[in-house]
Design brief:
There is one protein chain. The chain is about 40% helix and about 10% strand. It has a 6-stranded mixed sheet with strand order 3-2-4-1-5-6. α3 links the parallel β2 and β3.
Amino acid sequence: MKTLILVRHGESAWNKLNLFTGWTDVDLTENGVKEAFEAGKLLKKEGFKPQMCYTSYLKRAVKTLNQILDAMDMDWLPVEKNWRLNEKSYGAIQGLNKADTAAKYGDDQVLLWRRSYDVQPPALEDNDPRNPRNEERYAGVDPKLLPATEALCDTIDRIMPYYKGTILPAMEKNDQIIIVAHGNSLRGIVKELRGMSNEEILKFNLPTAVPYIFEFSDDMKLQKEYFLGDPEEIRKKIEGVANQAKKK
């Protein structure tokens, strides 16, 4: 059996403030650190032993993975970081409050910017300091590949070459892999794995720091998928994510 563990990062400072984050490099809150460590403890208790780890270039995901591995006493595991696992770019609305933006533009418009399959938020200007083309960490990436904004379809198009070209081959060599990334980047992988429609993925929400387990046969046929943890607590977390962008 093959196992893929997906984990959205723990609560970040901008999650707590209900701000659009995207590629902005925001740290975990104290609660986010605790969430991540508890996720690692749960994975250890349930006997999971990943052999390879993947995460993004953004510290909220990197630090979540670090906490998980610390709790599992598996800090020695190999970790590969890649910008393609970064969160969806929210373009020029990065840093804006989600509820305030919904009050200004309407719930429907903000839902499209957040979760639609093919509608992009307003783009960042080339000289905007938030534009990844102006960041040192992406100096080795072709600027044409770095987004100034993205719809979910763009995020999926960015992730899939890395998922299919790097992660899937690694699963042929390893029984368990963990990916710690972001709500929208992981939704792209979930859409692929579950064969979800564009409409279904619009309604799908990932809670923070809850392991999402996919079990496959040795020939990579999906057998089972489930969240690890208390169902009621997970339900509350998912509802919280879904309600973030509703106007007050």
